[in-house]
Design goal:
1 helix; 202 residues; 7-stranded antiparallel sheet; mainly beta; 7% helix
Length: 202
């Protein structure tokens, strides 16, 4: 079971090598209770002498997410964004608000900024961000303009403990009861953050 889980984790990381903002998973093993090896006498067994320890079976332990900063890559695409620092984008999904580091956005059929296959991107006001179909910028630190007119501001959020976030089957993160706070992370326009797992990692 432990080896199977480890292989599944590696396979999932490899599948998401090209997914912007992907945070790699790391799987750890532990053993069942360490067994003390004792030496006792043939007649008097009241005072055994501990002579060592031994572990018998590897058991599944815990799946960790690597929240370290991924490298940044310039794409030149108008709807690409990369976060430098601690922070997440908020996405309105069918399951509620979920969070992601992936900033490879597009426009849906109604003109709202969206993360394809997941949902609409939320602004700093908690509402979906609408952009005209011909939108080309400029964008300054997450604030979207059309000419001199303000179109909206992307929401960036942080949590007290990223380790408490819940990674969903969609690959996005649930707050798991934590309250999001505004992030002061730097936002790069026309860039993406690469995955934190590479083929050189095992």
């Amino acid at each position: 079971l432990s080896q199977s889980r480890r292989l599944d984790t590696v396979a999932n990381n490899m599948t998401n090598l090209s997914t912007s903002g992907y945070k790699a998973e790391q799987y750890t093993d532990s053993t069942f209770q360490e067994v003390l090896i004792s030496r006792v006498g043939n007649k008097d067994k009241s005072s055994p002498t501990v002579i060592g320890e031994e572990s018998y079976i590897l058991a599944p332990s815990q799946l960790y997410v690597d929240y370290s900063q991924g490298s940044l890559e310039e794409t030149g695409l108008t709807l690409d964004f990369a976060i430098e620092g601690d922070g997440f984008f908020a996405i309105q999904t069918a399951q509620g608000v979920e969070y992601t580091r992936s900033g490879s956005f597009s426009l849906d059929g109604e003109g709202y900024l969206c993360l394809p296959a997941h949902g609409r991107v939320l602004g700093a006001d908690g509402q979906p961000v609408y952009l005209p179909p011909t939108y080309s910028g400029p964008i300054r630190q997450g604030t979207l303009y059309r000419g001199r007119r303000l179109c909206g501001r992307l929401g960036l959020y942080v949590f007290a403990d990223n380790g408490q976030l819940e990674k969903n089957e969609s690959g996005l993160f649930g707050a798991n009861g934590q309250a999001p706070a505004p992030s002061q992370a730097k936002l790069h326009w026309k860039w993406v953050e690469n995955a934190t797992w590479t083929c050189s990692r095992r």
